[in-house]
Amino acid sequence: MSVIVIGDTNVGKTSAILALCKELHNKKVEILPDSCTILKDKMINEKGEVPRTEYPINRYTIDMHLHLARPKNIQVSLIDTRGELWGNIQAPNLPQEVFPEGHKALNDEIKKSRYIILFLNPYQEMIVGAYLKRTVNPLDRVDIKKDLYSSDAWLIRLQEALDFFDKECKSAKQIFICLNKADLFCDHREESQRWDYQKFGNSSSFVSYSSRIRSTYFNVANEAIEEFNSRQNQRHGDSKLSFFITTKMDRNLAEIPWLILGTYLGIDDLQGVRR
């Protein structure tokens, strides 16, 4: 099963994956030890830091255990991508101009993927100053003006992504849109407590959860999302989009997309879908 993880430079794609390797007693998503060792060897440097992803396309085979109502082991063909190929707010030129071959290779991989996880940074107006000040790790510091888009520019970027998904990603069954760095724009502990897999462990309840996340944190993009859904509904009868907020600071929030992914995989298995 091919899952591709995409997003701008410094959005936190790699850190979000590594967060699932941390040992916790009550974890619902577990990357098995051998896979964690491989990820850490490839993604963490000798200083213990997570540097920018160096190569354009990085493939990993990850064995995961999902502590669902019916526990499930899955093997994920994870494609981690270099952020500059998708977008870099500080770059003067578009990625297709700077990295034409790499940009094309990335787009080709996205078009083939059955599951797409897009990580977004929050936009400038979302940031809560008090939360920003408490971020003490120098690698996590965010300069609002340099590192984040305004809401208008953020919306344009999301619209471009949705247009690409609509026109080019015919193979995609689900597209997960994760608004990352939730610790900078909301009380992530309170949001985390609102999620309880035992309560939201069925598809209808998750739809309600995703709808709340969308209406609360993606409200500036309502029109763009509705247009995308309308086009998709005309062809498929349902939407491919699911919405999340994530942060490496909160394991519960980091796990939710993967738990929902496991639910979709279970449906695929029942239907005999080849991934």
Q: Can you describe what's shown?
A:
- The model has no long low-confidence stretch (mean pLDDT 83).
- A 7-stranded mixed sheet has the order 2-3-4-1-5-6-7.
- Helix content is 43%, strand content 17%.
- The chain has 275 residues and is of the alpha/beta class.
- It contains 11 helices and 7 strands.
Helix fraction, binned, reads 40-55%
Tell me, rounded to a whole number, the average pLDDT: 83
Q: Sheet bearing the most strands, described?
A: 7 strands, mixed
- Terminal residue distance: 5 Å
Distinctive features:
275 residues, alpha/beta, seven-stranded mixed sheet
Summarize the helices and strands and which ones pair or pack:
Elements: E1 2-7, H1 13-18, E2 29-31, H2 33-43, E3 57-66, E4 72-81, H3 95-98, H4 100-112, E5 115-120, H5 129-133, H6 144-147, H7 151-168, E6 174-179, H8 188-194, H9 203-217, H10 222-236, E7 241-245, H11 251-271
Parallel strand pairs: 1-4, 1-5, 5-6, 6-7
Antiparallel strand pairs: 2-3, 3-4
